[in-house]
Amino acid sequence: MNLQDFTFDQLLQLRQDVEKEIRSRKNQEAVALAKIVQTRAEQLGVTAEEILGMLGKKAAKKEPGAAKYANPANPADTWSGKGRKPGWFVAAINAGKSEADLLVK
């Protein structure tokens, strides 16, 4: 490939295409590496977060949200209202309870 044969617009397009491909491959490599680390961590009986801690880096951890709903049958079972609905919440709604009935008091 002789770059001298390309027009300016073709060179700009080529640069965009190359940068897009680099981003894609970088992402693919990172995903592959994450899978390797996860597999090896499981083999060693440690978490990926522990491994990152050994490197002096901290993995981003999401703090659980504040409890918004509680299981009427077991108030220790709570749900923040974010993410997938727990089974007890779905069962209570199907049994005729309203979301307001399940709010933490």
UniProtKB/TrEMBL annotation:
PANTHER family cross-referenced by the UniProt entry: DNA-BINDING PROTEIN STPA, PTHR38097
Entries under InterPro entries matching the protein: H-NS_C_dom, H-NS_C_dom_sf
Domain of life, source organism: Bacteria
Sorted UniProt keywords: Cytoplasm, DNA-binding
Pfam families in UniProt: Histone_HNS
Entry's Gene Ontology molecular function annotations: bent DNA binding; DNA-binding transcription repressor activity; minor groove of adenine-thymine-rich DNA binding; transcription cis-regulatory region binding
Protein name: H-NS histone family protein
UniProt-listed Gene3D superfamilies: Histone-like protein H-NS, C-terminal domain
Compartments it resides in: Cytoplasm, Nucleoid
Keyword Nucleotidyltransferase: no
Organism name: Leeia aquatica
GO cellular component, one term: nucleoid
DNA-binding protein H-NS-like C-terminal domain boundaries: 59-104
Similarity comment: family membership: Belongs to the histone-like protein H-NS family.
